[in-house]
Write a structure and sequence with these properties.
- The chain is mostly helical.
- It folds into 3 domains: 206 residues, Alpha Horseshoe (Serine Threonine Protein Phosphatase 5, Tetratricopeptide repeat); 125 residues, no CATH class; 58 residues, no CATH class.
- 44% of the residues lie in helices and 3% in strands.
- The protein contains 20 helices and 4 strands.
- The strands form 2 sheets. A two-stranded antiparallel sheet has the order 1-3. Strands 2-4 form a two-stranded antiparallel ribbon.
- Helix 8 runs antiparallel to helix 16 and helix 16 packs antiparallel against helix 18.
- It starts with a strand and ends in a 16-residue tail after the last helix.
- The model has no long low-confidence stretch (mean pLDDT 96).
């Protein structure tokens, strides 16, 4: 995202890649929150003994495993060190950290074990997450809960698709094992990148066979419910209600930052999220998703198609996001406008995973799949022009980025595929200190573990990722 420059922007340091090392609070935020979620999932799994559990209780245990897998897959992809041009694959103490992610903590981990718990290598983490997802797949069918905030069997399939795609890309670039740990996954040892891509394709397709259907144009552009209320496309999401502390705070919530059409909150104070200009210009004008952002004055036809929750927002800056609307289009009362939901997994992602995984095996098959999706659900004149593997994959990823902009998945794809980030170009709308260009994956995508973990866990001390601050 490009951001309208403002002193109210809490995320400035991330945008500028400053103070990302272990000694700063910015490394602490994701570490603290993700590990709290791990603890919550572990308490659920431990709280219901599987032996003697009723079918319904088995379903709850399955939900716990699904959530834990989701959390660790996010952490693995954020903290796993992958090679980049800007830093060496070494800790400050000179140890090779390639492929190392985070320590694994389960419901059975004792306090003493946690005090000397090394970072898992790629194989260990893959096996752990796959084991959790296999348990989830076995048990979650017993759950009678059907709503967008609790995972079901199709979310488990979706998580398996994400997992296999991550593992396949790693195998493509680095190989089956890495890091200093001697652990070698028997599962991965028997796989190739191609077989892993095939499994990613298989599970992504299984996820599309559930009760979920892609977002329509009307749902996408609805000023009252657009991306603030679940639709049939949402496989998993988070829901804030009026009584939640984050909503009652008025400003410390999703809508406060993600929605630019409010009279309250942080975005309203200045740091509005924008799409990068070059990214926006690549999107075809016939693609209704382009209306997710305020069209520039030069694009008069598109500008006339932009819709706003209130005429007072028609003067928003060019390229500012209109994707995430305030609840019930209420832009003045935070108790209504901030009581919204946001998606964590949409079925559209599965179509793009299926197409990308297919393209790695057979570019023309991947080309056919992305064209089928785009023509059926986005605009009927779409054509995927490249025919080679790299070109088809890049086009699929671009369309996936358009589809899921602001939903948290692009980071993982850019890192996984070793793509460059380009923000500094003629007439860029990234403010100067954030207009960074990289050669391959950015150094900042290898998250650093906060120093408090080093202080309390001897297994991590000396094995941290290199500080990416101020590096491209």
């Amino acid at each position: 995202m490009a951001i309208v420059s403002s002193n109210y922007d809490h995320y400035t340091r991330w945008q500028r890649n400053q103070y990302m090392g272990k000694d700063y609070v910015y490394a602490g935020f994701p570490w603290i929150f993700y590990n709290k979620w791990v603890q919550t999932a572990n308490k659920l799994i431990a709280g219901i003994p599987e032996e003697g559990a009723t079918d319904l209780e088995l379903g709850y245990i399955g939900i716990g495993y699904a959530f834990r897998a989701l959390i660790y897959l996010d952490m693995a992809r954020m903290y796993e060190y992958l090679p980049c041009k800007a830093t060496k694959a070494q800790s400050a103490e000179g140890k090779d950290v390639t492929g190392l992610s985070v320590p694994i903590v389960t419901e059975k981990t004792t306090e003493e074990e946690a005090k000397n718990n090394p970072r898992a290598n790629h194989d260990q983490m893959f096996d752990f997450i796959l084991s959790d997802l296999n348990k989830a797949e076995e048990l979650i069918v017993n759950s009678n809960i059907r709503n967008h905030v609790i995972p079901d069997i199709y979310v488990v399939y979706g998580l398996k698709a994400r997992l296999y795609l991550w593992a396949a890309s790693y195998m493509d670039e680095i190989g089956a094992t890495s890091g200093t740990d001697v652990y070698v996954s028997e599962t991965l040892a028997a796989e190739t990148a191609q077989t892993l891509y095939a499994k990613a394709e298989e599970y992504a397709h299984k996820a599309t066979e559930g009760p979920y259907t892609p977002t329509t144009k009307e749902q996408w552009l609805n000023t009252a419910t657009g991306f603030n209320s679940p639709t049939d496309a949402w496989m998993l999401g988070s829901q804030q209600v009026k009584e939640n502390d984050v909503v009652q705070s008025g400003i410390i919530n999703w809508t406060s930052w993600a929605c630019n059409e409010t009279s309250y909150g942080y975005a309203a104070a200045g740091p509005m999220s924008m799409v990068g200009k070059s990214f926006y210009e690549r999107i075809f004008d016939t693609d209704f998703r382009k209306l997710s952002w305020v069209a520039p004055e030069a694009k008069k036809k598109l500008r006339r198609q932009n819709t706003f929750v209130d005429p007072s927002f028609e003067e928003l800056d060019e390229y500012v996001s209109l994707k995430f609307r305030p609840g019930m289009a209420n832009f003045t009362d935070y108790q209504v406008g901030s009581a919204t939901a946001y998606p964590m997994m949409r079925v559209e992602e599965m179509y793009f995973i299926e197409a990308e995984a297919a393209a790695h095996q057979d570019p023309l098959r991947g080309k056919d799949l992305v064209e089928d999706f785009m023509r059926k659900y986005r605009y009927d004149s779409y054509a995927c022009i490249p025919t080679d593997e790299d070109g088809v994959v890049e086009e699929i990823i671009f369309q996936k980025r358009v589809e899921l902009w602001g939903e948290g998945q692009t980071f993982f794809d850019v890192k996984r595929l070793n793509y460059s980030v380009t923000r500094n170009y003629e007439d860029t709308n990234f403010y100067p200190n954030a207009a960074i260009n990289t050669d391959g994956r950015p150094a900042w995508m290898n998250f650093v573990i906060v120093r408090t973990e080093e202080a309390n866990n001897a297994g991590v001390k000396g094995w941290n990722n290199p500080d990416p601050s101020d590096r491209e």
